[in-house]
Amino acid sequence: MVQKLSLLFLCLLLQCSLYAQPSLVPAGNKLQLMVKGKPFLIMGGETANSRATTLQSMENVWPRMKQLNLNTLIVPVYWELLEPEEGEFDFQLIDGLLAEARRFDLKLVLMWFGSWKNSMSSHVPAWVKLDQQRFPRAVSEQGVSQEIVSPFYENNLKSDLNAYSKLMSHLKQVDTFHTVVLMQVENEIGMLPSARDYSPLANRRFGEQVPQDLIDYLELHSETLNPEMKELWVRHGSRKAGSWEEVFGEGLHTDELFMAWYFARYTGQIAAAGKSLYNLPVYVNAALNRPGRLPGEYPSAGPLPHLLDVWKAGAPAIDFYAPDFYNPDFKHWNDLYVRQGNPLFIPEHVFDASVAAKALYAFGHYEALGFSPFSIEQNPEQALTPKELKLARVYALIAQLKPLLDKYRGCNKIEAVLLDKNDNNAVFRLGDYEFTASHTYNLGWEPGVTAGGEWEQASAIVIQTAENEFYYAGFGVSLTFRHLAPEKGNVGILKAESGNFRDGRWEVYQHLNGDQTHQGRHIRSFIDEMSLQRFVLYTYE
Ligand code: DGJ
């Protein structure tokens, strides 16, 4: 009887976790994406924009994603194809994508290409494009109508919200085993070529008082606002009422802030409507602004770091904000995005030779929810290129490390470095040890080191699993050590091994010593190697 009951209990538990909806839950000082009741890391890639418009065009992509060791593909859902005639929805494409993803054991992140895609409204259906009276456009400062639906008009919101709601209801119905783990609402929202919309309603709203909801948010969060937001508000007297220009001053920054509020309200209402039908986690991505350009010269008012407080105030249903990388300064932008507990997710990184190193760094240093090169399916018929091979190897490495990454998530036990020629060493602490990480080109032993040439980016994750025990995963990084208590003396390597995790168990491939640890002086793996190592440190006088 007891046996039968426990069997029943186990079955129920299994059932529950199979059906458990994807969600974000706290894990230590981080957030964790849970899928079917288990922590999930998105080792992803995003297709080129038009790739997922037919199943035929996707045919070669699915097996290629398996070769690259992805577990998740990020694909658009195109409003124009979902609702080609008003009120008539065609779910064939999305159902086909779901079936194929399941067949290849891949998860999906769906991007809603609705009102906006890279600022523009190119993906709205023809019946929206052709009826500009009913679906008003944004207007530039010069009075020129743009191919951008204006966020100020109810009809625009209603029709987008209705289509997105239908999509979410459909997913709730058909995706019972949760192939879709995350939703992106819209894509790289931003106003061009002016900092704000000058349509008649936008102009009317600009003359009104700053909405009370925004003022309340600023007051309630005054201690934790991002410094850019706080400084702007305080500089103009921390006013609790007034027009946009009275509260924030005159200038393009206020035009942008005003616009951000209305973009956020619109997008937030769509996200909230979708969640009320099917509560999947939702994020919004951002086109990063190029330094030195003014709002309007770059797509203005998207969820950029200096506007995140406005977005959070205006769109509480959005769970997090994600940077797209076509810019340098990877660390700088990520550091701005992880403020206020925003989890890091990189839905797009230009697919260049640096992605393997950056993926490792993102999963290690930021404990990112996921990483995804853009246009992942390049040349799906040809052999893997070096950058693709390297990404595939990094994803395989992360998959092996995942139980450790899950176990120690948010506990300050995981670190990573990203090194290149300019930034060729880094110091960090784990437990009682201080580690100095150095690009292995500094050793001068590898053929790739050339006098004036670039240094390939190197990265390694280090995880502390016991007081003196650590794992190293990466390439092109050497590690030396120091104990934080000087009286402990010098630090040496008691044991080092390369190996693999198989079914969660550590299997030694080689016992590392001699040249492989520089006779006990360091832990390392060269730039062309990619290695997983366990090492134990000790102190000596
Ligand atoms: C960023 C966008 O989000 C993508 O959809 C794509 O347009 C890339 N830029 C550039 O190809």
Description:
This protein is 32% helix and 27% strand. It is an alpha/beta fold and 541 residues long. It has an eight-stranded parallel β-barrel with strand order 4-5-6-9-10-11-12-13, surrounded by five helices. Strands 14-17-18-23-20-21 form a six-stranded antiparallel sheet, covered by helices on one side. Strands 15-16-19-22 form a four-stranded antiparallel sheet, with no helix packed on it. The radius of gyration is 25 Å and the shape is globular. The termini are far apart. Residues 49, 118, 187-188, 324, 348, 374 line the site of (2R,3S,4R,5S)-2-(hydroxymethyl)piperidine-3,4,5-triol (DGJ).
Bound molecules: (2R,3S,4R,5S)-2-(hydroxymethyl)piperidine-3,4,5-triol
Question: Mean pLDDT score, rounded?
Answer: 96
Number of helices: 16
Which word captures the global form?
globular
Keywords:
541 residues; alpha/beta; eight-stranded parallel beta barrel; six-stranded antiparallel β-sheet; 16 helices; globular; binds (2R,3S,4R,5S)-2-(hydroxymethyl)piperidine-3,4,5-triol
How is the secondary structure organized here?
Blueprint: H1 2-19, E1 23-27, E2 30-35, E3 38-39, E4 42-46, H2 55-58, H3 61-67, E5 72-78, H4 79-82, H5 92-103, E6 107-117, H6 126-129, E7 137-139, E8 145-149, H7 154-174, E9 180-187, H8 200-207, H9 212-220, H10 227-235, H11 244-248, H12 252-277, E10 282-287, H13 308-314, E11 320-325, H14 330-337, E12 345-350, H15 355-365, E13 370-374, H16 386-407, E14 414-419, E15 425-430, E16 433-439, E17 458-464, E18 469-475, E19 477-483, E20 490-502, E21 505-511, E22 523-525, E23 531-540
Parallel strand pairs: 4-5, 4-13, 5-6, 6-9, 9-10, 10-11, 11-12, 12-13
Antiparallel strand pairs: 1-2, 2-3, 7-8, 14-17, 15-16, 16-19, 17-18, 18-23, 19-22, 20-21, 20-23
